[in-house]
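Self-study notes.
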Amino acid sequence: MYRTIYVPVDNSDYSNASIDLALTLGKAFRSSLVGSHVYAAKLHDVRFKQMEFTLPDEYKEETELEKQRKIHDALIARGLHLISDSYLDLMDARAKEAALSFERKHFDGKNFEAIVRDVNESGYDLVILGALGQGAVKDSLVGSVVERLLRRTEVDTLVVRDLAQVPTASVPAAIDGRIIVCLDGSQHSWAALVTACRLATQFEKTVELLAVASTASPEDEGAREDLALLRAHLQVAERYARAQGVKTSCQLLERPGLPRETIAAYVQVTPPWLLVAGRCGSDANGTAPIGSTTEHLLRHAPCNLLVSGKRVEPAGL
C-alpha cells in the first residue's frame, strides 16, 4: 500500500510522533522510510554580511572579508549539517531495529520550499508530518509548513495532531479503534474509503462511514435529492467495507450550517484513531489544491488526519 514513507523531522514532539507512526505503518506494509531535515545556512550567511561593518578595520579589506565569509560559511554549514544528522540518527537507528530500509536527506533553504520540492520530485506514497513543529506559535493548531505542503502537493499526507493516539514502542496499541472516513461521493472520498479499509484491516480497526447533509425544509426538492444520494453512497461504501472484512458503522448527520463545521464538531466529542478525508470534495471546481472542508478539518479537527490525494471511481470498488 505504501512503498515509500517520507517524514520531515525537526526533533519536536510532533516530529518524533511522526517517526513512531512511520515505523508502525512501515512495519505493517514493509515500506522504505525516508527522513529529511531542512536547515538555513544561507540565512546565517546573510546575517554575517549584515554584521560585517562591526568587524575590526583589519578584516574589512575585501580579500580578507571574502576569506572570513568562506570560513564562516563552512563552519555554519558543517555545524547545521551535524545537527541535522543528529535529528535523523534516531529515525535511522529505529528503522534498522525494525529491519526497514532508511534514507536520510538534508536540505539547505526555506523549510516548506525544500520539502515541497522533494515531495514533488521523489514520488513518495505517503508523507507523515506533525501538525506543529519547533517554530509553533502559541495556541496554533496547525503550522504553516503543513498548510503550504498540502496546497502544493497531491500525495497522501498524514498530519499528526493527537499524540495520545500514536502507537509507540512502549504503547503499541492506540486508545480508540475507530477510523472515520468522510464520504460525499467524490472520487477523492472513495479513495479515502479504500485507504481507510486497508488500514482497518491491517490494524484491526473499525471504520465509521460519515456523511453530512445540511438541514433544509421538507419542500426543498434539491436537499431531498442530496440526502437520498448520500444514503446511496453510504450503502455502496458499507457493502465495499464489509466485502473487505471490515467492521463498519454508518452516520448520516443532518445539521444546519456547513458540513465541514458539523464534521469538526462531531470528531471533537470523541476523537477517532484516525480521520480520513479526500483532498477535494464533490463540489470541487478542479482547480483548488485542497477543498474547503478538508482545509477546515486540518485547522480544527483535534485528531490525526489523513488527507487522501488519490481518486477512485465507485464503479471500480
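Second protein, same conventions, sequence then structure:
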Amino acid sequence: MPIHDYRCTACQAQFELLVRSSTVPTCPQCGSTVLERCISLTAPQGNSKAIIAAGRRAAAREGHFSHYSKAERAKLR
C-alpha cells in the first residue's frame, strides 16, 4: 500500500494517504473524491547538510562515534 500526496481541487487541502488499489481516495477535510496526485518530496525541505551535521553532532554527544579518531571527532563539533 503506497503513500501518495494529494491536493483536493474542491478545498485546496494538501495531504498524504495510504491507498490500496481497490479504494477511491477522499479528502479528509471535505470528503471530495476529485483529487490531484502530487509529486512527493524525496528529502526533507531545507538545508539537508545542516540536518545531517546536526544529527552527527547529536550522535557524537551520545557516544555513537567512539570508533572515530580524535581528529575525526573534532570535525564533528
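Instructor comment on the second fold: The chain has two domains: 3-38, 41-77.
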